[in-house]
Amino acid sequence: MSLVFGVLNSLYIENIGRNLIVEADFISSSIEGSLNSARYQEVQEMTAMFSSRFSKALVIVDGRGNVMASSGKIKLEDLPLEAVLNGKKYVDKGVVRIVVLRQFRAAVPVASESKTAWAVIVGLLPKDIANIVKVNLLFFVFIFLGALLSTLIWKRVSSLIKPLETMVDVARNFTNGNFSRTVHVNSQSEIGKLSKELNLLAKKLRVTMEENEENKILMNELLESLEDGVLLVDDENKIIFVNASANKIVNLDAKKAVGKKLISVVRHYELNEAVNKAINLGIPVYKEITLLPSDKILKASIIPFKDKREKTAGCIVVVKDLTEIKRIEKMRTDFICNISHELKTPLTSIRGFVETLNDGAYQNPALAKRFLKIIEKEVGRLCRLIDNMLDLSMIEMNQIRLNIKDVCAQEIIKEVGVIFENRLREKDLAYYEKFQEKLPKVKADPDWLRQIFVNLMDNAVKYTPNGGNVWIEAESKGDMVEFRVCDNGRGIPEKDIPRIFERFYRVDKHRAAGNGGSGLGLAIVKHLVKAFGGDIRVESKVNQGSKFIFTLKKA
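Now predict its structure.
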């Protein structure tokens, strides 16, 4: 009952306030023109007229709070005039203000065409406030009686309502995922039993949620730790999850990829079709694809997953980068092919001459001696090939013991020049050395450094036609010394340069085989230079010669 009276009283006060606002708005619009035109005498007259017509106190103030016109008394001290002048409407609220302070006011701004602002304040006259006070006293009497009655009733039902309200609040927390709050009712009644069940439910839900969260974190960590890329795609072919490996393998940004169509992120028609097939048919699909322009070879395993209604909801795309595996497989195949070829050639030659000797050629001393020299040469070729293979294998596996020390490379180069004197003379090749004055020593193993120059010189002499030039240059560059083994021979085609340091790789296989090359020399050179902490490259043009350039650290 008191609640009803309270609501009625509140509506009564609010209605008076709304009327004051309406009257203030009407007065504001009526005097707007006079204020903007600075007809202040007319404003004063209109203020008195409106005050009489509406039986209200009325005050007009400017932007500084100065009273420009008034009719009746209105307190201005506690009015928020600044807010009103800035465009906000105000009306007194609360019965206490009306009953105790005996004031009821409303204030509205006046539209202005200039920077000057005005406000209209309308207030009830004392006799009207007295009537409101009487009505409020009557309301208060009824409210008191209603409150007294409500208190008596509340005492009877509070023991029931409060626990129920708490339970409702706790249940509301459940819906928001908060299971920490519980209900405490010390009673053996049905309410007490219900509270215990609610607390038990909260505990179970909390444990379940924690387990789910832990499982979610564990699953994310598991997916992120996989070397294989994982993408989750829904039934509309939109990406819903991408792990870190997939970002790297497929070269995409997970933040930008999620929510987009797979084909717009991984632009590969065959992969997109395979995913569609897995979703439409509900069967796993396995596909090997090549991504362009990176030429990555990927194995995609596409596994559909279903929702609780047994309908295909999307698929898991697991991508494995096979590029390195395929490269190694090709290298292994090429190695077996090359080594078989390299071994077969001298062995076939040896076998042929042995068979010829067995057939009676041994009875001719001169012919037998010539055959034996050829066999000896082929055996030497086999030994060199095996030695090179062993050397390269040990270098690649860091199993050779390098005796790194300060080495005078100039002396080693001169020794190499002496080693090749006969071969240079046979082909009528001009040879010279061009060194910087006081060439610094370098950090290297002298024996293996000699092998580097021997291998590079061997190639230079081998592939330079008769009458050509071969030379070695060396100069200091920063904290390194740069060496260049040069020739003006037939050169290397541009397409072959990136692979020139691969084992068994030859630019011209037939010509190289005729020259007795194993295809391992440059691979050995590359690994040795790297082991010394240097770098190597080649500059070459067809029919203009080649420059093998490598650097070593200064001593």
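The chain has a mean pLDDT of 81.
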